Amino acid sequence: HLTGDIHAVTAANNLLAAQMDARIFHELTQKDSALYDRLVPRIKGVRKFSSIQLRRLKRLGIEKTDPDSLTDEERTKFARLNIDTNNIFWNRVVDLNDRYLRKITIGQSPTEKGFTRQTSFDISVASEIMAILALGTGVEDIKERLASMVVALDKSGNPVTADDLGVTGALLVLLKDAFEPTLMQTLEGTPVLVHTGP
């Protein structure tokens, strides 16, 4: 990633945005049972929660670890984030200043079934992920900070986090090469460590 690690931040930021929009789309087009079955599929006849799903259950106050033991109400509560599309705080980012991307409409493809919304692009270095990368004290600290990023509010006004979307691990993988500073050489020929964005 060389200087700035901006590419890694851009990829991680936009993965989170894409996951959020995909989740909104699937919640709008699927019934509760189908959504739950896709989130916790049966593999060789057995359902199992992942560690990130167990964290979501804990945040919801559901103290169960067997996916088949959840009531219908608990399954709905677990499976539906109910993101309020008027209260989304997370934008896609790009590493250039393009004034025509400051306000755009997404979801115009026929495959999106008419579920459009207005959004915008920010510059990559303005991403919260860049701040986390710069301020994090270690991998575990960065993981916790990424997990707790609030991307939107649900229809009840509760925060929806990156962890709720299930992408914390994927964000870490995209950022792993950016954790360490890059050793560079100045014009004067002296070594310098460069880390994160400008």
From TrEMBL:
Keywords: ATP-binding, Ligase, Nucleotide-binding, One-carbon metabolism. The keyword Ligase applies. SUPFAM superfamilies: P-loop containing nucleoside triphosphate hydrolases (SSF52540). GO terms for molecular function: ATP binding; formate-tetrahydrofolate ligase activity. GO terms for biological process: one-carbon metabolic process. It holds the Pfam family FTHFS. The keyword Ligase applies. This is Tetrahydrofolate synthase. The lineage of its organism: Eukaryota, Metazoa, Ecdysozoa, Arthropoda, Hexapoda.
